[in-house]
Fold:
Amino acid sequence: GAVVSQHPSWVICKSGTSVKIECRSLDFQATTMFWYRQFPKQSLMLMATSNEGSKATYEQGVEKDKFLINHASLTLSTLTVTSAHPEDSSFYICSARADALGNTEAFFGQGTRLTVV
Amino acid sequence: GENVEQHPSTLSVQEGDSAVIKCTYSDSASNYFPWYKQELGKGPQLIIDIRSNVGEKKDQRIAVTLNKTAKHFSLHITETQPEDSAVYFCAAAYSGGYQKVTFGTGTKLQVIP
Structure:
């Protein structure tokens, strides 16, 4: 299957700082990318959906000013956690799909473990 | 919005036995049902999926069934092996628009050698 790569795999940051996570589709052009958050022993919760060149659509309860998403190209989306706090510590996972109409499989990245201290 | 329930939350089976995980969904518009395997510290990996125009799909030791009337779908793993141990998630989506995928709560499968 296609490859979606996230960077970094893990990051530790101080409370109050910002952290950027990258999600790249390595061998296909991702029309749509999704960002999920997963707390320990829990399911994946969709945070936002982004389409290349458009503003992201955030799920209810997700602060768009805190979780900045940029999908500036067909192969790269970034999630920036601004003014991070310990409660933002989580496993962040992106997925990417080639077809905006949902007719193709979405491929997941390997995830980024964020720890805010 | 869509709500996906998954049972059981944990499942232990002896190597070689079968494992069955069941899910229900709420939105009758959902027409795409993928299953993912997630190993510790990794992202989910698609293992099989089914669309609403079929009732069953099989891929070697893995099979999925779908009952659209009852809004039930199930994952069946036969001849389980220790490497099948992982967390499995069912999901539901509508493959129109931007296909937002709603995940189930997950099942931790342990295959005992």
Observations:
- Chain A touches chain B through 29 residues (CB under 8 Å).
- The first strand of chain A starts at residue 4 and ends at 7.
